[in-house]
Design a protein that fits this description.
Distance between the termini: 46 Å
CATH class: Alpha Beta
Structural class: mainly beta
Number of domains: 1
Number of helices: 4
Order of helices and strands: EEHEEHEEEEEHEEEEEEHEE
Radius of gyration: 20 Å
Strand content: 35-45%
Largest sheet: 8 strands, antiparallel
CATH architecture: 4-Layer Sandwich
CATH superfamily: Mitochondrial biogenesis AIM24
Shape: globular
Helix content: 10-25%
Oligomer: single chain
Number of strands: 17
């Protein structure tokens, strides 16, 4: 049995949250510095620019991790690819090219501890079962429990891809379990919108939505009924989400 202090709090490192088998470790200050970098590191920590690591404790369950994200693991843990054959590999390669995600995401199972590479991005733990299918922006996926499935979804209309600034394809997470996302902004800054009626509508000027429910219909529309009106208003085209579901929106693009 391997014992480790990775989840124990120290003067510079604390475990700040848990979800499922995952824990989030945050470095309140970086003391791996020298005289030349100490000042920059100090002010960075004051603004919340800190190293963060995700640890997973496996007890017979499994997780799927972004390729190259594993830093170390201990215990009786085995790694395997998520490829089921040549056809599945070709499908994943096409999806990876479209979504900018890695085609092969290693799956780890067994009993032990896995710690992922440090990141300066902000970590979100999301229960996918609460979303009924969660579409995420490119490069947000970091890890998930292996009860969560990943697939590629296409835009409902070509206009939404060409003019919405979101791309033609996105990664969609389905099933139940915790997904770990790397967010460009902290959770405290994220704006959560819940659409509760089929006629509900949210219009966003720019690609600031980082995740939304698969059930929502995404289109790109003019802010007014005419091109002249849209030009006069200075808003032009907006991303429109309709239906019942949720949206996570960053305050800046």
């Amino acid at each position: 049995m391997v014992n480790t202090n990775v989840l124990n709090n120290t003067s510079c490192r604390k475990t700040v949250s848990h979800a499922g088998c995952f824990s989030l470790i945050e470095y309140s200050r970086d003391i791996s510095v020298n005289a030349l970098t100490a000042q920059n590191e100090f002010f960075a920590s004051q603004m919340g620019v800190r190293k963060r690591q995700v640890a997973a404790e496996l007890k017979g369950n499994g997780i799927v991790v972004q390729a190259g994200a594993m830093q170390w693991m201990a215990g009786n843990v085995e790694a395997a690819t998520n490829i089921k054959g040549a056809g599945d590999l070709a499908k994943k390669l096409i999806g990876a090219a479209a979504t900018k995600e890695s085609a092969v995401k290693p799956r780890y199972t067994g009993v032990g501890t896995i710690v992922l590479e440090p990141t300066y991005k902000h970590i979100l733990f999301e229960e996918i079962g609460d979303w009924g299918g969660m579409v995420i922006e490119d490069s947000l996926f970091y890890a998930c429990e292996d009860t969560v499935d990943t697939k590629v979804v296409a835009r409902s209309t070509l206009s939404s891809a060409a003019m919405g600034g979101e791309g033609l394809f996105n990664t969609c997470l389905t099933g139940k379990g915790i997904a770990v996302l790397e967010s460009p902004v902290p959770r405290d800054e994220l704006i959560v919108m819940e659409l509760t009626e089929p006629t509900d509508c949210v219009k966003i000027d720019g690609n600031m939505a980082i995740a939304w429910s698969e059930s929502l219909k995404f289109t790109v529309e003019r802010t007014t009924k005419t091109l002249l009106g849209s030009a006069a208003s200075g808003e032009g085209l907006v991303n429109v989400y309709r239906g019942v579901g949720k949206i996570l929106m960053a305050p800046v693009s």
